[in-house]
Design brief:
single chain, alpha+beta, Rieske Iron-sulfur Protein, six-stranded mixed sheet, four-stranded antiparallel sheet, 5 helices, about 25% strand, globular
Length: about 300
């Protein structure tokens, strides 16, 4: 697994076949994705800097991923289908439609682990959403193939202990009430999807390898599948392991603590921050309570 960190950047990744595809094993150029094509469709640090210079306050992410038509905050989380993968991902026909909990549940029912996930956009930012059958499995002994939301210790890039994932239940709003929108609920976790390494966009099962296979191991380890995987430099994140950690505001250099999912391998320094959300009439809506958590990329 360590060898993936030095992967040849010209390497092509096999995209996952569309569910029910009659020709899932056939060679097809449209199902291959190399780093150059991936970066063309997503972000990198240099591209972001160039775009920021030309787009000003609009911002690179907002330009590529879209903004609310009203110009204000768009709380609805929408599916975002990567270009060229309309026939590959399960939500291929739902591009820019609002994410619904029932969609995730229906897709999870087809999975051997009971998990599902999707790429999305919220308020002009790329996100990942993952459905985990936590409520069904939390009382069972931890075991392979029985996923649930876990809580672990968080260590920054220097190895300094920052805090524990269970501290998320101590977070309160300005009125002193618990932040239940941040706490795990509805078997769903919503995450800001920019890799803390070079600001690429990690994905959910967009490529086929051991890290993205429909398997699960307890403990937040690098082994096992159902990881969020960044094909740029192979950083991996376990979307079932929550921790408290620390990152840096890229604009002013200040540091901030956040709650997010664990980095399990690759060159990224830390994991991905959570986005609090609500489910209203089956529709998933993000909340902008912790905007600083998303400032580690321009």
């Amino acid at each position: 697994m360590e060898g993936l960190q030095g992967v040849n950047m010209a390497r092509q990744f096999r995209l996952r076949p569309a569910p029910g595809s009659l020709d899932a094993g056939a060679e097809n150029d449209s199902s291959m994705l190399d780093r150059r094509r991936f970066m063309k469709y997503t972000f990198n640090a240099a591209g972001g800097a160039i775009a920021m210079a030309s787009l000003g306050s609009v911002g690179f992410a907002a330009f590529l991923m879209g903004q609310a038509d009203t110009g204000g905050e768009d709380t609805g989380v929408k599916y975002w289908v990567p270009k060229g993968q309309e026939d590959t991902v399960w939500y291929g026909s739902l591009h820019e439609q609002e994410m619904q909990k029932s969609h995730l549940e229906a897709e999870a029912a087809k999975s051997s682990t009971g998990m599902s996930g999707a790429q999305g956009v919220w308020s002009g930012m790329p996100v990942n959403i993952v459905y985990i059958p936590h409520e069904e499995n939390e009382s069972k002994p931890p075991a392979e193939g029985i996923p649930r939301i876990q809580y672990g210790e968080g260590y920054d890039a220097a190895g300094t202990f920052i805090g524990h994932g269970r501290e998320i239940f101590d977070v309160t709003l300005e009125d002193g009430s618990p932040d239940t929108a941040l706490q795990p609920h509805d078997n769903i976790l919503l995450m800001f999807s920019r890799c803390p390494h070079l600001c690429c966009i990690p994905g959910w099962q967009l490529v086929a390898n051991d890290f993205t296979a429909d398997t699960w191991l307890p403990g937040g380890v690098d082994a096992g599948g159902n990881k969020l995987f960044c094909i740029c430099h192979s950083s991996r994140y376990d979307p079932t392991m929550l921790e408290k950690n620390r990152n840096r505001n890229r604009s002013n250099g200040s540091t901030f603590d956040y709650f997010g999912v664990r980095l399990t391998g690759g060159p990224a320094p830390v994991g991905l921050p959570l986005i609090p959300f609500t489910v209203e009439d089956d529709v998933i809506k993000g909340l902008s309570t912790y905007q600083e958590w998303y400032t580690f990329c321009d």
